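User: My advisor, Dr. K., asked me to get a structural model of this assembly before our group meeting. I'm new to this, so sorry if the format is off. These are the inputs:
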Amino acid sequence: IPTPHLTLNDGRAIPQLGLGVFLVDPAEAERIVSDALEVGYRHIDTAMIYKNEEGVGRAIANSGIPREELFITTKLWNSDQGTDSARAALDTSLSKLGLDYVDLYLIHWPAPKYGKHVESWQTLVELRSSGKARSIGVSNFMQTHLDDLAQVSDVVPVVNQVELHPAFQQRELRAFQEPRGTLTEAWGPLGQGKYELAELPGLAEIAERHGKSVQQVAIRWHLQEGIIVFPKTSKRERMIENADIFDFELSADEMATIAAADRDERVGAHPLNTD
Ligand code: NAD
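Assistant: The format is fine. Below is the predicted structure of the whole assembly, which you can bring to the meeting.
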């Protein structure tokens, strides 16, 4: 897969396309991630709360792929926020993954109920120095939470991973965080299958014109927008389909058509309501 790489604000490179494993059954995770690695994916997005880090780790170990060719992300769960608990949580994730380091460690949600996102960020900075997390970032942060970090720390999150798809494009948040050096990662890039991408104006026509599926068009759109994307599928054919997006390009008109299809509608949870 000829995946482009983006440069993070700490100088490291991230493959722009990966596989997400939310809702991947722990018993199936090894097979699914092994398939993805065979198909050519090198970037896997998991989280402690997905409960499948062990399967992901076994697939990595069995793949024989040199560690430095892989980009592995996991996330700090809300109830593990705080200094000692965050340190322990990363150690637990590393041991489940069978790794000495993750490429990217994210605070999964701001979880305002706990009031610990700032303290957790300072701990992630320390974990980066220790080498256990090569890069550090956040997920589901709103502008106010990013501001909270900036008040106490010079370390800018390399990414903010947020819900983002053609019906919920996050233009305002992107315009805030990207100029400050935080790249945008999309979760739910296919709308989690909760609406038909083809029902958005213009999507089906664009797909037809290029001989691609609407899902392929959506993934291609993320890449051309400069967003990092890791659609989830457990099916090998769809892993191949979702990566078969490097032989066409959306025109400026087509990008504008998709931009106009934004209806500012979430399919997932609101960051302030998740703890
Ligand atoms: P997604 O938008 O990737 O959608 C997945 C759904 O689309 C699945 O039901 C799958 O069967 C279907 N699908 C995949 N490829 C398809 C294709 N080619 N044709 C038709 N249907 C297809 O949703 P997601 O899994 O929620 O998001 C992707 C990843 O983002 C997750 O796996 C996870 O790694 C991450 N994520 C993070 C958070 C967070 O809070 N940080 C929340 C949700 C997801």
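One thing worth pointing out at the meeting: The pocket of nicotinamide-adenine-dinucleotide is lined by residues 20-22, 45, 108, 139-140, 161, 187-193, 213, 215, 230-233, 238, 241-242 (CB under 6 Å).

User: Perfect, thanks a lot.
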